[in-house]
Specification:
172 residues, mainly alpha, Serine Threonine Protein Phosphatase 5, Tetratricopeptide repeat, 8 helices, photosynthesis, PSI_Ycf3_assembly, Photosystem I assembly protein Ycf3
């Protein structure tokens, strides 16, 4: 099951060694340990652009992982892969699933907003003004939630909200 590290990055190797040590000493079940190994291997494959392999590992981790918090990060990472592959509908599904398990994931909220903003730009380019406004408003809603959770992040989104008049002062 352990993935061979193709990357000679010192930090990646150090993380792997530390994670293996922690995994051995933590009082967790065999399934939880296996789930973590799959998750770690998925992250490694994802960082190397091996998305199919990463997805396989994440899906295996989802089968074994029971903790909702940990599952939320697995689902979030699956969403990242689908988003980077341009499969925005699937990405949105996984981001929303991750938020159902962990509502305090500002990065998932941000990524949802980015997708809606992109869809708003596409609609604007096609002169679909009503649809464009709808998508931009949805993007604003999710960015406001992300900024509320992480007020020092997403500066470009904050500027966009201000310049488009979509700012909601509840997060400032």
């Amino acid at each position: 099951m352990p993935r061979l590290q193709k990357n000679d990055n010192f930090i990646d190797k150090t993380f792997t060694v530390i994670a293996d040590i922690v995994l051995k000493i933590l009082p967790t079940s065999k399934e939880e340990k296996q789930a973590f190994c799959y998750y770690r291997d998925g992250m490694s494959a994802q960082s190397e652009g091996e998305y199919a392999e990463a997805l396989e590992n994440y899906y295996e981790a989802l089968i074994l992982e029971e903790d909702p918090y940990d599952r939320s990060y697995i689902l979030y990472n699956i969403g990242l892969i689908y988003s980077s592959n341009g499969e925005h509908t699937k990405a949105l599904e996984y981001y929303h699933q991750s938020l159902e398990l962990n509502s305090k994931l500002p990065q998932a909220l941000n990524n949802i907003a980015v997708i809606y903003h992109y869809q708003g730009l596409k609609a604007a380019n096609l002169n679909q003004n009503k649809n464009s406004k709808f998508m931009f408003d949805k993007a604003a809603q999710y960015w406001q939630q992300a900024i509320y959770l992480a007020p020092n992040n997403y500066i470009e989104a904050q500027n966009w909200l201000k310049t488009t008049g979509r700012i909601n002062n509840t997060y400032q």
